[in-house]
Amino acid sequence: MTRVSHKTHALYLSAALMLTPLTLTPLSATSTAAAAQAVLPNQIAGVSYASNLIQGATFTDTAGHWAEESLFMAGVHGLIVADSQGKANPDALFSKRDALLGIARLAGWMPELQTPGKRPLTGDTWTVWGRRIIDIAQAKGLLGNPARPLTGTWDDPVTREELALWTVKGLQLPPVKEGVVNTYTYTDWNLLNADSVPYIETALREGLINGRMEKGQMVFLPKQPVTRAEGAFVLVNGLKKALPAQNRLIIPVSVNDIDDTDPAPGGVRTRRIHLVGPGGEKTALAINGSTAASPWGEGIAVWKEGAKDGYALAPGDQGELYTLPALNGQISSAYLLKVLPGSRTFEGNLMNHDPQTGQIVILDPWGRLQRGQLSPGAHIWISGEERKMADIPGGTYLHVEAAGDRITTITADLPVADPGAIPNESKIRQGRLSSVEANGVRIIDEQGRDVYYPYAPGVVVRQGQEYATLDDLTIGDPVSLRLSDYRGSAIAVIEIPVRNRKVEAVYRGTITHINPVTQWITLREVSKFVGGTWTSEAGQMQSRIGQAGAVSINGQPVAKEAFLRYGKGRKVIFSASDGFDGKTITRMALLNGTMETFNDRVSKLDVPGGSLRLDIDGNYLSIDNSTIILRNGRLVDPKQLQKGDPILAFADATRNGYRAALITVDKDHMQTTEVGDGLVQGSIRSMDKNGKIVLQLYSRYRDNSWTRFSGADGVYSIKPTYNTVVYDFRGATSSRIPISDFLSQGPSGQFDDTYLYAFVQNGSVLAIALQADGPSTEQPPQDRTTLARIKSINSTDHSVVLEQVRDWSDASRRWLPNSTTPTVSLNGAVVIDKRDLIDSSDLRVNDTCLFIRDSQSGRARFIFRQ
């Protein structure tokens, strides 16, 4: 290797960043072709000017800056240059001429700009080549005729519109002229030049530039000047489009292993970094220590949470290998390895795997889609054995480790290490449950259709990574149905999220802006329906009308297109679900009159005729498909209403009568499937050796109320199992009685006349709570039923403070609001979450719960977390 001084290396580097790079393999100009052929070369070696490369791209004023990484990447690729003091001046404004110079280097125009005998290794590049850059930019279509910027002069700051427009044109990315969506999302899109819109759309789709959120609105700010840090961010985002077109590959790599070679006396210390490429190909990157010929050694530039050298790499690092240009064959190609951000873990069900691209889509327990790309050399573990990704069937629950969006390790637990019974090519259907039937389910799908799907033999229900049962399904649940085969319609697996099963929220507000292309609307004066009351939301809000969104005016459905054209300025009420890209409206109606509230019961229901009659008030409310109906927090359809339902209705009062805009139903909060399921309380009359318990003076809990006590002659039987948990609350401190002791001691009469509460589920007793005494009356028990949200938790005295309280009235059989914030003791409470017993310490602030509590002391007896 030619020996070159440290100073000369810096000059070589400056010039190298302006010259045509050497190629690794012949590639087409498209990034797709480049990506398809992006493979590691057989040999990679460090270069003697790596330290200059790192030093030259590490500016003296960028440490800790939000754009430190982008500024380093821009510096190492020559997209921006330092001033005489080595500063990048990241917060200074980016001039139009510096922007054009950066685009020229990004797009590989520098050979066209160079004039024989004039290479500005020192001095002002613009002074030497400024006119030439403008001429070439004009010839390539960046500028009009005459060649001038959109605003101001070449010394003025470049605007966001100009930088995005010129970058897209410089990279020769095709403008999007049809189906412009992203640009119209921004409320100030009309400030763009009309001719710029297709190019701005391309810039947004390719991730070159982003919009901003200001005062609750998404804005693009096309005329705002760009700082040098923001300019570096945009130009660096263009590297993945620019470099493959210049045959300079960006190769995904994984650091598999590292070994050091101890030098012989007088020898050179060598480190070999073993890399794995996207196709599983392997190569070693050699970096050497200091020698007389290379006093700074031979290495590579590394970005790993800061500018580093090759010695910062460690096994397991995931990154991107950039090939930097060489200097006319005098110096070999240099490399930059950018290590992706720190590791993250997530888990969920495998929804899709594309073996061609390595893209993986996973549905996590919160119902969100997580996407990632399988990294080179990723480890796939199935039941403790390392296997291939192709061996994991669709629908399998996975534990994933990733660096950035690069998946490094996947762990799957299967009954066997071979593909399961769910075919990889099986179809997936998503929607909301509208009914659960004996042989199948009905869902309202993403197009708003009510569709029936039968069960396949051995249908499986999964809630996150846990197996569930059909009894765990609730009307209104968001579900994913995995069908048993590609052509069939039978359900092999039903998947429900662990959390956020109540995905709907209800809002009302005034529309201030409508984008007819993206179907996004902006609202002000927004209120959210929470716990039976309306609470104001700060600022403005944006939502999108979904495919299944129903829009109603005066109870009559209207075309969404007509609403999008004329809806601005109207007051609306709507339900919305949280999606991956914001809130999506599912039902919406215009409010034309005043909103009136009815806390009542349904005495008569006529779904085909579109009306219901209130029991206490006596008025009729009209209902239709755009009426928002929440049953136990889940969005349902009018046909899911039932006679006798306690409802809280908000109706639009007009001269034509009352139209129900929102109806909430809170009923059957305890999950029961059999006639004998639910809460029961009573006194133990006897227990036999088979474990059967006969209760006398008993009462059962039905429809938010306790029945009258049975009287002396009435008896009721329950039978605990060895899974039943027995709580003893008869003493000063609570305890548990082993079920074996309870069943063995009971027949001897030890528990006779003991008062108990029990919860029966699926015909089996889940929990028994023994009490010190019980009421002696034939009237219904005086326990209070309360539906409320936990405001705070006091772990010292084991109590909670409630808010948004509603108490059940046995007299009027409806929920009555309670403006107080009562404190409820948890001592002696049995807590049930869905179908599982949990400890009271598992309760959290903001949990909504059904409390069965003592009317005198307020102490909770049973708590059902919703």
Q: Taking strands numbered 1, 2, ... along the chain, how are they ordered across the largest sheet?
A: 1-6-5-4-9-10-7-8
Number of DSSP helical runs: 13
Q: What can be said about the biggest beta sheet?
A: 8 strands, mixed
How many β-strand stretches? 52
**Model regions low in confidence, pLDDT < 50 over at least 5 residues:** 1-36, 416-425
Mean pLDDT: 81
Structural class of the secondary structure composition?
mainly beta
Roughly how much helix do the residues carry, as a percent range?
A: 10-25%
Classify the beta-strand content into a percent band.
Answer: 35-45%
Q: Judging from the principal axes of the Cα atoms, what is the shape?
A: globular
Radius of gyration: 34 Å
> Could you give the distance between the termini?
72 Å
Protein name: SLH domain-containing protein
Keywords: Repeat, Signal
Signal peptide: 1-28
Domain SLH: 183-249
